[in-house]
Amino acid sequence: xxxxxxxxxxxxxxxxxxVQLYLRRAGFQVQIAPDGRTALDALAVxxxxxxxxxxxxxxxxxxxxxxxxxxxxDVPIIMLTARRSEAERIAGLEMGAxxxxxxxxxxxxxxxxxxxxxxxxxASPDLLDEQPLEYSGFRIDPRTRLxxxxxxxxxxxxxxxxxxxxxxxxxxxxxxxxxxxxxxxGLADYIDPSTVTVHIHRLRAKVEADPAxxxxxxxxxxxxxxxxx
Length: 229
Ligand code: CA
What we know:
By secondary structure, the protein is of the alpha/beta class. Helix content is 41%, strand content 21%. It contains eight helices and eleven strands. It has helices at residues 13-25, 36-45, 62-72, 86-95, 107-121, 158-169, 177-185, 194-207; strands at residues 5-9, 29-33, 50-54, 77-82, 99-103, 133-135, 138-141, 146-149, 152-154, 217-220, 224-227. Strands 2-1-3-4-5 form a five-stranded parallel β-sheet, sandwiched between helices. Strands 6-7-8-9 form a four-stranded antiparallel β-sheet, covered by helices on one side. The longest helix has 15 residues, at 107-121. The radius of gyration is 18 Å and the shape is elongated. It starts with a strand and ends with a strand.
């Protein structure tokens, strides 16, 4: 199998070099873009297997790149963010970034996140044997990762699909935010549980007729979330 290609968009040379070193050691092919313009030029030529994206960048900022990418591709994005920039982080997650790491971070932690995100976003072989789920207007096909609601095809990110699939495959079963993090994100310890809330809201906006009064993806007070067929 060819090495997975990772684009690292980071203007601080010392951070970019350390990240490159650790990712190469872990067996990845790494390209560095030192500013947003260079990143967009590289992405226009080829979409890599994953993007590590600093949000504070010269020329074109990270959120603009996230939006640009999401208009074109489902490529996994891991954001690098400053501790104080929570609003930016949430904006990035809402735009469809897959994960984030807060600076200063350990390069080994970043490598673990990269592996976890790649594991999650590439359909696992046993999923290929699963049959599509069909009920109350929903059709969820794990082999093609296509979702239809009342005949309309719905565009979901890899993470949104995984979450919907998990919930819908276990109707009425309650999943706590921690459990969802563990099952869908893979590394519960590292990730803020509010990430789950953000993704649930996005999922509802896409599949519920009235996202403010959801009928299928329900909040269970104090408990978590469940799928009601
Ligand atoms: Ca920066």
